[in-house]
Write a sequence for this structure.
């Protein structure tokens, strides 16, 4: 039963090797999907390219369905995997700061790393900025951020449980929302790009 | 030229990323992260320069207490090394491996680079405060139905739509 490393089935060296291999797949797919093209990324906010939304939702839903089924059939113990604990206040504020980062900088950390190593100079500068930001945050952590970061603590919260529905029903609803969104953004993109050639 | 414009189908790429995410959870119990690796670089650098400071400062101390283990020897670092290799392989195959500056058509390269730096700083701070970035916290969090992932989703993308109007000159 999984997860294999946390439950002691595989050793540390193999685990790190698997991390490397999974990273190769992740990086390959981000690049292949066009995530190193900053204008394609920004397009999600202006309607001319929805690649971000499509890839993002397709990935999250695939993983949610797969992990739900694997947990159901006893192939993985979801309680033993990394599970982001909910601190709603800093996540909401931090997320909003990241929204500014996205609109101003045109990348997020994962996409900027892929873009930087494939020659995008703007992405190299973005990565440098992100590292400067983390340094700045680290050195002002105790005075500025620590209390805020630990506020709004809710612990380990499953959104379906929180809404009072089953995991399966939540995933079904999420899939329906995504399907409607996929359909809608395809229409929007067609309309927006009809009027103007964005030359991506 | 034509070839470099060809990208993989978005849905297919998304589904395959989902499969790799399942693999990350199944084998290693980890999500697919990115900002955590940048943090590890910062922690390692500060720890190497001044271990006494790192041992005391709240941001660093939990991550540097094990004297034997370097914070750089972590799953996330190996995953990011893989991401780097994978991106280069894909770009090489598609003929996209070249130096260039990606930007909107109506701004100068200099403006683009200044804003890239500022945006990076925002993302660096936001990812630390928000406990992860778009991949590690939001996408991987959504995969395990963590409420945190959905709050992050709404904050980053909802926030993005609210403020997009003000930054349109950069992209349109």
């Amino acid at each position: 039963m999984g997860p294999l490393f946390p439950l002691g089935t595989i050793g540390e060296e193999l685990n790190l090797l698997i991390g490397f291999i999974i990273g190769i797949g992740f990086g390959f797919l981000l690049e292949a999907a066009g995530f190193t093209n900053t204008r394609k990324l920004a397009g999600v906010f202006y309607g001319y390219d929805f690649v971000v939304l499509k890839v993002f939702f397709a990935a999250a839903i695939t993983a949610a369905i797969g992990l739900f089924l694997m947990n159901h059939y006893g192939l993985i113990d979801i309680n033993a995997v990394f599970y982001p604990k909910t601190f709603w206040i800093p996540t909401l504020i931090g997320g909003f700061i990241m929204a500014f980062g996205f609109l101003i900088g045109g990348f997020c950390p994962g996409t900027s790393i892929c873009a930087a190593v494939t020659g995008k100079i703007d992405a190299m500068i973005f990565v440098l900025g992100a590292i400067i930001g983390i340094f700045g945050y680290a050195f002002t952590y105790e005075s500025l951020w620590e209390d805020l970061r630990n506020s709004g603590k809710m612990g380990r919260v499953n959104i379906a449980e929180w809404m009072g529905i089953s995991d399966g029903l939540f995933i079904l609803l999420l899939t329906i929302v995504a399907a409607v969104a996929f359909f809608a953004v395809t229409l929007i993109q067609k309309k927006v790009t009809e009027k103007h050639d964005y030359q991506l | 030229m034509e070839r470099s414009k060809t990208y993989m189908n978005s849905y297919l790429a998304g589904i395959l990323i989902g499969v790799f995410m399942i693999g990350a959870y199944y084998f290693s119990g980890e999500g697919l992260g990115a900002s955590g690796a940048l943090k590890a670089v910062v922690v390692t650098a500060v720890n190497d320069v001044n271990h006494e400071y790192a041992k005391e400062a709240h941001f660093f101390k939990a991550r540097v207490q094990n004297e034997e283990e370097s914070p750089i020897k972590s799953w996330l670092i190996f995953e990011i090394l893989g991401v780097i290799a994978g991106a280069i392989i894909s770009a090489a195959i598609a003929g996209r491996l070249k130096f260039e500056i990606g930007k909107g058509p109506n701004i100068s390269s200099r403006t683009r680079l200044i804003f890239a730096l500022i945006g990076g700083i925002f993302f660096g701070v936001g990812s630390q405060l928000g406990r992860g970035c778009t991949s590690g916290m939001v996408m991987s969090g959504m995969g395990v139905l963590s409420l945190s992932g959905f709050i992050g989703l709404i904050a980053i993308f909802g926030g993005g739509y609210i403020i997009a109007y003000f930054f349109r000159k950069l992209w349109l």
Summary: Chain A has a mean pLDDT of 95.
